[in-house]
Amino acid sequence: MSDERPWVEVRGIYGWSLPEVEGGTPLAELGVNAIFMSAEVVNREIADHLHAQGLRVFAEFNTLHEAQYVEEHPGAAPVGRDGEPCPPPDGWQGVCPTHPEYRRWKMARFERTLTEAGVDGMWLDYLHSHAAWEQAEPNMPDTCFCPRCLARFQRETGVELPAGDVLTQAASLLGEPRDQWVRWRCGVFADWVREFREITDRVRPGALLGSFHNPWSDEDWDGARIEMLNIDLKAQAQYLDVFSIMPYHARFGHAQDPEWISRQTSWLGRCLGVTGDPGERHRIWPIVQLSDWGETVPVEQVHVVLDHGTRRPSTGVTVFAWHSLRKQAEKVAALGQFYHAIAPVEQAGNRRRARPLTRCPKPT
Predict the structure, then answer these.
(1) SS3 of residue 319 by DSSP
(2) CA pair distance 183, 235, nearest whole angstrom
């Protein structure tokens, strides 16, 4: 791999760790130009340090995956079709998306990070229903049938549920009115994105709003991205700048088929009408797996994975996950080789210099 890919705006890593502040090889020397890190970690000092290296800084913001909050506020637990709090599927504890106090708490934390940390954008994570999909066999229970959700659904849709307990009403919802139930739940999650957009434009105009989200097409897993996870990409598109699908090929059962990455990215481009050409309203920046999580990613796959992650309509790529990858010298070297090879450059003596980056246009 030696061809430049001038359409690739972002060459990122995810999971940057504090030891990088204290010393070591500057990440820019690996061809990296963007860092994604937890909103729980980033602060103004870290952001300024990375900006001084010519790096953009994006914060990953956990939305609806908060076990401690649910433990302290049992009323925020998603309720299953049996009327009981739904156990965390494979340990992934979600939160009821209509819990008002939780939503206010999360929005305040989001606003504080944007106000204080000096980041270039915020990426929403775990913005979907109570589920464990980040594995080869997803675990996606039906939720949330709490009294609050059932009452809101009836009030906002005009659908009247039969009298009775949750067992009766859940059985009814999952029958004939299921399509209305799914559309309503998709709208609940999209409304979270709307409020994040409003905060972003008010507090830090020009900052990007992105989303780390499920990489399935409308057909994969019998349409579960919409039907079970309640992620309506087109509904959220009016508020988002960047879509960062998560095609972790090894983790998700495609260890020998890295081309799956570009197939999913291509599908997303067709779905959203994104081609990867300059001046488009939206961007697609997949986050791809190089670290060993569930399945090993051999060093021989590094270039192949990044090749598929940077094919149009992708205009950026991020590597998952730096905290473990940084200990694998051969992979890091291969990553740096690829990133340098695709970076748009101009000659300056014998040095290669990256061209300036441009931001996505603001919403209209």
Answers:
(1) strand
(2) 10
Instruction: Report the DSSP beta bridge partners of residue 240.
Output: none
Residue found under tokens 């290296």 = 53
Q: What's the chain's Rg over C-alpha atoms?
A: 21
| pLDDT over threshold 90, residue 294 | no
Which residues pair with residue 319 across a beta bridge?
13, 288
Residue ranges making up the domain that contains 69: 10-354
The residue-averaged pLDDT of 278-303 equals 96
Mean pLDDT across the chain, nearest whole number? 91
Annotate 5-23 with b (16+ C-beta within 10 A) or e (fewer).
Answer: bebbbbbbbbbbeeebeee
Please report, for the domain that includes residue 27, its CATH number.
3.20.20.80
Whether 3 is covered by a domain: the verdict is no
User: Is residue 1 situated within a structural domain?
Assistant: no
DSSP 204: S
In the beta sheet, which residues pair with residue 61? 124
Q: pTM (2 decimals)?
A: 0.92
Ramachandran area for residue 269 (φ above 0: left; ψ -120 to 50: alpha; else beta) = alpha
Closest by CA position to 146, among listed 158, 126, 129, 127: 129
Which tokens sit at 31? 């061809």
3-class state of residue 213 by DSSP:
strand
Q: Which position has the higher pLDDT, 91 or 29?
A: 91
Does an H or E element contain 122, and which? strand 121-125
Distance of CA 87 to the CA centre of its chain: 24
Report residue 176 as tokens.
Answer: 């004939």
Provide the domain count of the chain: 1
Per the CB < 8 A criterion, the answer to whether 118 and 47 are in contact is yes
Contact 257, 249 (CB under 8 A): yes
